Every structure is written in structure tokens, then in C-alpha cells.
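Hey, sorry to bother you again with one of my protein questions. A protein chain has come my way and I'm curious about its shape. I'm sending you its amino acid sequence along with the C-alpha cells. I owe you a coffee for this, so here goes:
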Amino acid sequence: MFVTIETWQITLFSVAVALGSTLVILPFGVALAWIFARKEWPLKAVLETVVLLPLVMPPVSTGLILLKMFGRRSPVGEWLYNRGVEIVFNWKGVLIAMAVMSFPLLVRAARTSFSEVNPRLEQIAATLGASRCRIFFVITIPLAFRGVIAGSLLAFSRALGEFGATILLAGNIPGRTQTLSLAIFNYVQTGREHEAYILLSITVMIAFASVWCSEWLLHSTKRT
């Protein structure tokens, strides 16, 4: 199977942006997951529903919302554009689309992991004089670490396969915003099925490795 330079460029771009989006959402996803697992407040269910919406909404619908939010005619988009930050039809748009679509998977996995941490351990640490911040980083995070990493791998896999929101917000521009999924679609449309199957094989291998590692971490967490 002959792999061209163009194929490598598309693969490296997709992996790099998917990894970047995962790193961007990681602190926010972990913080929100901990809040969902530990706190109760009115309208909590509403916020949880909003966070999970990208999982059930058509990706194109999410992409249209993002386009309205970050387009040059919107207040946010105009403010960013006047400061030299372009989102639409740019790699930044790819990153935002990936981040939004993969965020719910990270939150769900991390929340489950935090819920399985025994609160009594945190209470004991508090009685010994540990601050909330120290308890979180020394006790809670290490105990929930595997679940957080598993959620991050799932988020990375979802970001890598993102299509609908990306094509609306960032377009399908070769060498600029074209990801693996967009390139596969473009190759099939133009009759370049051989290149499409090569990219499909690469996508399957990366996704399989990520999901397998995620499942292994989750199962190993349950055993311990």
C-alpha cells in the first residue's frame, strides 16, 4: 500500500489538531466532571443536558450553531476578527469543532470515574488539615486518573472522526482544513477510491488503538 506525502500531511494534521483539541478541553472537562459528580444545585440536570447535546444532535446542526457564533457578523466573531483571530475556514475552526463534539465523551467518562472515588478518603484528608486543592490533586485525581485518561482517549477518537461540524465551520480546504474524514469524503466524491481506502485504513487503526486503550483502562479500573 503506497502512502503519498499528501496522505501523511492529512494524517499528521488530523492527529495534531485532534490532540490539540483534547488538551484544550481536558482541564475544563475534568473540572466540570468533578462538579457534576460532587455537587448538587438547582438546574444541574439542565446544564448536564446542554453538555451532552452534541452527542445526540446532528453534527451539522452543531456546526451551524458554531458558524453563527464565530462568523464575522456575530459579536464574538467580529471581536476576534478585529484582533486578527480568524476561526471560520481556518485550522482554529477545525480545533473548535473537534473540541465541542468530543467534550461530552470526556465529561461522561471523567464523571463516572470521580463518582467511584470514595468520598470518605477525601473527608479523612480534610480532617488532617489538607486543603481542597491539595485533596483534589493528591487524592481525587490519582484515584480517578485512569478514567480521565480513558475519557481523553475517547474524546481524541471522536475528534479524529469529526465531519459535520468541521465542514460547516472550517470547510474542506486541502492543505489547510482538510482532515482524515473530510479527505475520505472528498476522495470518494472525486473517484479517488484507492486514496480513500488508504485513509480509511489509517483512521481505523488509530481509532481502534485509542478505543482499545480506553476500554482497557476502564476495565482495569473496575478490577482495582
Summary: Residues 5-223 form a domain with the MetI-like fold fold (CATH 1.10.3720.10).
